[in-house]
Amino acid sequence: xxxxxxxxxxxxxxxxxxxxxxxxxxxxxxxxxxxxxxxxxxxxxxxxxxxxxxxxxxxxxxxxxxxxxxxxxxxxxxxxxxxxxxxxxxxxxxxxxxxxxxxxxxxxxxxxxxxxxxxxxxxxxxxxxxxxxxxxxxxxxxxxxxxxxxxxxxxxxxxxxxxxxxxxxxxxxxxxxxxxxxxxxxxxxxxxxxxxxxxxxxxxxxxxxxxxxxxxxxxxxxxxxxxxxxxxxxxxxxxxxxxxxxxxxxxxxxxxxxxxxxxxxx
Length: 266
Known about the structure:
By secondary structure, this protein is mainly α. It is 45% helix and 6% strand. The chain has a 3-stranded antiparallel β-sheet.
């Protein structure tokens, strides 16, 4: 166990400590045997391998090309990847959604999702995301939002394989280190690189607290946008990501500061 990286060791110790804490709470044992064990420090920076603008575009372009050709479940693959990359959802949030969670509010296409901790939230979809979902669903309004060829809910292991398969086909050297979360990281990082405010990116990503993501930490010690990610080796460039463009960010700030009238609340 000494030779293991600190992060896996810390996770295992946390799980063991939680088990013994439950045992002591239930009076099954008198004292936790790991109460005095010192846990290794874990670096604040994310270990997720990220994508830059060109790499993300390459993956999405390949998914779009396959969807246009109508191969297999390619329209589903494009819709899922677009939702992660342009709206920054967690993979669990996307796969837990149902077709009935799609809707329209005040002229915007929205998706109702369940955030971490069971909190319900409404996500305004980027236009490219809404189009990809419409092309995939083709009028279907029941069942899970993303399904397998057999009609079952699409799961996370399959999403992992999808991301790496497309990344390999797109020629990315880091393909085997990528995950669905890499697309969410790209959403956050590229939005910050494009100049979108921390508050707007935090809201879009569903972070209840900025310290949950190193790039969203305010204050003088904040790193350069995007510096927390391990990249595939291609230089960073600015990019306006999905629905978090500067124009949309300004509109969100205006909505927050505009008093609601009885007519607008109806």
